[in-house]
Amino acid sequence: MLSPANENELSEAIAGAKGPLHVVGGGTRSIGIVTSGEVLLISGLTGIELYDPGALTLVAKAGTPLAEIEVALAAEGQMLPFEPSDMRALLGREGVSTIGGVVAANTSGPRRMMAGACRDSLIGVRFVDGRGEVLKNGGRVMKNVTGYDLVKLMAGSYGTLGVLSEVAFRVLPKLGGATLIVRGVGGVQALEVMTRAITSPFEVSGAAAVPGEGAFLRLEGLDTSVTYRTGKLSALLGGFGEIDVISDAAASAALWARLRDVTDFADGSSAVWRVSMKPSDLSGRLVPVLGGELDVQYDWAGGLGWLRLRDGADDAEIVAMHQMIQTGVASHGGGHATLFKAPDTVLAQVSVFQPEAPGVAALTRGLRAKFDPMGMLNPGLMGGVA
User: What sections of the chain are H helices per DSSP?
Assistant: First the structure.
């Protein structure tokens, strides 16, 4: 195992590697199977290098624990806008989530529909490519830049194009909030509730639905504003059914942490998929044709679905369902279906990520050839050289 303590050691480790490398941050949110490679552990690159609350910017080394960053931000009444999730319970992992892993997975919670994804708050990166060269893009302050946007390219690349050594973020003031629950709605009706809420003038920052429980709508801001908007939104949606309001900020936050981390599915389920597509296609077309063997939880106002296959399904059943889901996504308007959790025996048989269209696949191959020409970094994880 290679465990560099700084960027220079990281560069030397990659440049001197004799074979493929399996890049690991905290190991809490990795998915799929990397088919080969010596472990390259990034957790030694730690520390907040710059935090300027007045400028709303934070710079940290990639191995810095996410919890350390969140504590530092909370002390100044600030937060990461994109609400990163904690996947340890769902994936059955231990360890410490790192900020580099958050970026590598482009982790984005319920606030994504208002504040954008992780990549939208990312303003600068430093990373080492597959040849051991140190590259940087963006900066430590918010500004417009020209040239290739490598910042967004690195977000969601799962360490296949380069190994992050430093990341810089735009941060925002931390907000209090309340949650409005419309009881008893599900499926298409829950989608209508969420759509009406997010298209209203009442600034909803979270919209999720759990069949059997109802639709959940979050409003954030100053207390007086939240109280006013909650009342107005309740009146707007009163015709859909019984409405409850969680006005305690801590209780509301706990509910959204549960939805964000998908802890309802953290029970040893056979397989879990993460599906992102047009809301009406997801709940109105894809889910109905998959049958009654799947439990579903919706987020992003219906644009994100977490699908869980019943316990006890064997490998053949999981593979068949996986193929059905990815084919359905491709045929129902497009999107992305990722096999987020499954037995290793299944992961070894399938493409975990949604297959790319031929044109996109050609672009992807060109990028890998540029940044990792020898196929050194997480080979096989996202369809690269195995």
Answer: 7-15, 66-75, 88-91, 99-104, 112-115, 118-121, 150-154, 187-198, 223-237, 249-261, 279-281, 287-289, 315-331, 344-347, 358-371
pTM of the full structure: 0.93
> Average of pLDDT values for 292-300?
91
Structure tokens at 202: 């009442």
- Residues 38-66 have a mean pLDDT of 96
Q: Clarify whether residues 24 and 165 are in a common domain.
A: yes
Q: Which of 357, 362, 364, 359 is nearest to 382 (CA)?
A: 364
CA 147 to chain centre: 26
279 and 133 co-located in one domain: no
> What is the domain count for the chain?
3
Residue 370 domain-assigned (yes or no): no
φ, ψ at 347 (rounded to 5°): -60, -30
Are 46 and 87 contained in the same domain?
Answer: yes
pLDDT digits (tens, 9 = 90+) for 66-83: 999 999 999 999 999 999
Q: Cα–Cα distance between 301 and 182 in angstroms, integer?
A: 14
Identify whether residues 56 and 199 lie together within a single domain: no
First-to-last alpha carbon distance for the chain, in angstroms, is 20
pLDDT at residue 30, rounded to an integer: 87
